[in-house]
């Protein structure tokens, strides 16, 4: 049990890295299956379109899918177009929303960039697309005319022909792999730089930030449990009242205004002893203080802190 607890603690401490790693592995495995089973270059004038579609279209689908499965996307978007929110619009809130959108975009880019990088290392898609490119044709066949261009279209389907055409120049396969490694290097450099900058500008210390992350995780877990219990009790009361043809018993549940107050994002800072909007809500007379109304709306959580969804005890 002690060993299992250590594994659980390790996974919790590195959940972001592990999550990205799992997404990367699944994407790489999917790309391998596509390139091995589904993909077959036509080796004609459609090479460019066919190869580019397999290289870029799945990456675009993964990018959109990553947005769709991230709960933060819907938390950021829900209610933004309502008339009430337009009346409450603040420039600072717009800036915060854009900041959070950048964070979501960075997370959503993991899967598509992995697809493109792995596909470039495999070289099949690039080799097919590049063989139908007029720019590549000019590079390889500027002195050999139309016959060379026709042969270039057959390169993805003929290894001997590929070796013959590429004998004096860098092969399409090698070009693809170089592009893949350069892309991986750039991604890693940007990821490290972004992490260093975000940590450098953190308003709290390392251990304080660590506590915030732990609190956010536990708060979210407890909220799911409490929300199911609360919803079950409310559903039981309403259905019993309906079938028994009786007036429903009194039942306390958060108001729409309360839900609105706790659903906005929160910025961890060193000036307030709070760790989420719900924590602030229950600590400021259920969000009725002037300070809460002034500061509590449309704030975004720091990029390196997983935002909490609720504080159970406040509901």
Topology summary:
Elements lengths: L1 H12 L1 H24 L8 H23 L1 H7 L5 H5 L3 H18 L1 H13 L1 H8 L2 H8 L3 H10 L4 H7 L6 H29 L5 H39 L11 H8 L13 H7 L6 H6 L20
Helix pairs in contact: 2-7, 3-6, 3-7, 3-8, 7-12, 9-10
Keyword list:
about 325 residues, mainly alpha, 2 domains, about 70% helix, disordered C terminus
Can you describe what's shown?
Helix content is 71%, strand content 0%. Helix 7 runs antiparallel to helix 12. The C terminus is likely disordered. One of its GO terms (molecular function) is monoatomic cation channel activity.
- Unreliable runs, pLDDT <50, ≥5 residues? 4-8, 294-315
* Number of H/I helices: 16
Over all CA atoms, what is the radius of gyration?
27 Å
The count of β-strands is: 0
Summarize, please:
Its main location: membrane. The protein is mostly helical. The chain has helices spanning 2-13, 15-38, 47-69, 71-77, 83-87, 91-108, 110-122, 124-131, 134-141, 145-154, 159-165, 172-200, 206-244, 256-263, 277-283, 290-295.
């Amino acid at each position: 049990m002690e060993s299992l607890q250590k594994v659980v603690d390790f996974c919790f401490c590195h959940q972001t890295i592990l999550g990205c790693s799992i997404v990367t592995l699944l994407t790489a495995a999917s790309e391998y299956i596509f390139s091995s089973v589904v993909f077959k270059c036509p080796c004609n004038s459609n090479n460019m379109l066919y190869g580019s579609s397999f290289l870029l279209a799945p990456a675009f689908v993964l990018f959109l899918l990553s947005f769709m499965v991230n709960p933060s996307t819907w938390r950021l978007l829900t209610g933004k177009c309502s008339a009430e929110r337009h009346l409450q619009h603040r420039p600072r809130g717009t800036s915060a929303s854009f900041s959070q959108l950048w964070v979501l975009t960075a997370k959503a880019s993991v899967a598509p960039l992995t697809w493109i990088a792995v596909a470039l290392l495999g070289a099949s898609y690039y080799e097919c697309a590049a063989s139908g490119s007029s720019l590549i044709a000019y590079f390889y066949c500027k002195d050999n005319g139309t016959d060379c261009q026709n042969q270039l279209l057959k390169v993805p389907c003929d290894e001997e022909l590929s070796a013959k055409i590429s004998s004096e120049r860098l092969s399409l396969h090698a070009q693809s792999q170089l592009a893949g490694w350069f892309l991986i290097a750039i991604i890693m450099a940007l990821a490290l730089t972004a992490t260093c900058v975000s940590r450098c500008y953190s308003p709290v210390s390392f251990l304080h930030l660590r506590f915030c992350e732990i609190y956010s995780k536990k708060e979210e877990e407890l909220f799911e449990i409490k929300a199911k219990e609360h919803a079950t009790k409310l559903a039981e009361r309403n259905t019993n009242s309906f079938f028994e043809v009786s007036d429903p018993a009194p039942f306390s549940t958060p108001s729409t205004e309360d839900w609105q107050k706790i659903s906005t994002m929160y910025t961890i800072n060193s000036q307030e002893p709070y760790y989420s909007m719900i924590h602030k809500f229950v600590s400021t007379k259920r969000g009725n203080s002037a300070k809460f109304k002034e500061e509590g709306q449309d704030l975004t959580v720091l990029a390196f802190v997983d935002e909490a969804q609720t504080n159970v005890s406040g509901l």
